[in-house]
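Posting for a labmate who doesn't have an account.
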Amino acid sequence: MKNNPLLSIRNLSVEFDTGDEIVPATEGVSLEVFPGEVLGLVGESGSGKSVTALAVMRLLSRSTARIRSGEIWFDHPDRGMVNLPELSDHEMQSVRGRHMAMIFQEPMTSLNPVKRCGQQVAESILWHRRSNASDAKKKALELFGEVRLPQPERIYRAWPHELSGGQKQRVMIAMAMACDPVLLIADEPTTALDVTVQKDILDLLQRLQKRHEMSVMFISHDLGVIAQVAGKIAVMRNGRVLESGQASGVLNAPKDPYTRALLACRPSLDERPARLAVVEDFMGVKPSGDGDQAAGSPDREASSAAAMKKHARDSAVGAGGQAGNAGEAPVLEIKNLVTRFVTRRNVLGRPLDYHPAVADVSFQVYPGETLGLVGESGCGKTTLGRSIMQLIRPHSGSVVYKGRDLSGMSAGELRKLRTRFQIIFQDPYASLSPGMSIGQAIMEPMQVHGILKNTRERRERVFELLEKVGLEAWHFDRYPHAFSGGQRQRICIARALAMNPEFIICDESVSALDVSVQARVLNLLNDLKSEFGLTYIFISHDLAVVKYMSDRVVVMKDGRVVESGAADALYDRPAEAYTRRLIGAIPAF
């Protein structure tokens, strides 16, 4: 490793002009990345991680963003040290993509939906290497092989929507590697991916980094992921670097309270505390609307006691996955459920082939318990959840809720029962209408189902619900875009509670949240469960989260149940190789 840094960020301050005010995004950020080194940049959403990366790549919007002060020095292979903000657009265009490249967080929005995947990779090669079309295609196919995409020729011709999330991310990696850059910036490249796909992507990046001797700036909100790849770590919060150093030192002996908080927020497979730690527990501040109950408060201690009872119930759940109270009737019973989708039709539109998304699934859910549903993307978890809700009508089998078979009911009959069971979707922003205030969004289902007598009573109920989920009554008239991801998820929880349900399906409801925000939402769900006597089906690809939340766990693969049992027993002694592989892929440090 050379003594001089490849990238040196010095006192970088970036601000945004919103039209009403100037908002600082980073304040005096200083970082160095040396040749062949992997720097992990970690922090919550809004900490300035991505803004720092976009400033390095010169991709910040000129209309709203401005570098107030600071320098970004890059050791150009041909020109030596250059200050990137001082380069002309033409000069920067020759650096970006050729000598430094970036992998973005969401590959579906980063790939052009109307261009085939191979063309998008070849385009970069044609531009920067002045190759002909034949050589560019050959190089793109070699890259697809290097990133271990199956059938490179097929992927070259495929459209982005035809690929899985992991495959799209591999295409993005191939595009970034197209011109052999010396610096690769990976901005949350594994967020919301399954643990197994995440492990594959991390292994791939490590392999490419060593083979090509690249420097990498790896950005994530998850210290568990950062620990797998980084030699050095820098921790950011509110636009500032709070702590940096060798990975082993930061992870094993963190100096800043915020770093200790990030380490403590993530659920562990080794223990199940009554309540997850949150950032405010370590920072000595009163939580805001996106926070949690203050440590040591009577409410917190009461809910912790309730959570202890909840976790203690695991000892009463049999190894076969049945609830301990054999005389208790299930609140929900799934019997031989099959849901399938048409994959091919003839010229008359008649179905020829089907894909069985849910194949002969059976299980029971008992009052007051949380049943975890876990598996990789495409295993049928979400389809099963929507089939239970009758948002997708199953092909065969039955969904029996308190003795009544939902699958045979008419739309009118189902509507009368909708108040009793609700669903919280994965993406809270997509679940809320951008043109409707959050108060209206919570109140609308109450109006549809005739809950409470009039608008005044419903508004009062919305105020109560907002405060119940940690927001304020005055938030009623604000719109979804004005809230953080964690706050929007709380709004969706409040909307589900507005119906006074007995049963809630949480479909990947914390998968895309920061670990600190995730901890607050999980604590909230457990508090509400204790207070209202709720029953949950908790769907997730994150096994650590599922274990923390669940009394029992059902593992799905290819639309089928491969294993089920009490949460602790299943994680300690998994019977199936597939379950062991899922558990083995969880990041640990």
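Reply:
Got it, the structure tokens are right above this. The chain has a mean pLDDT of 87.
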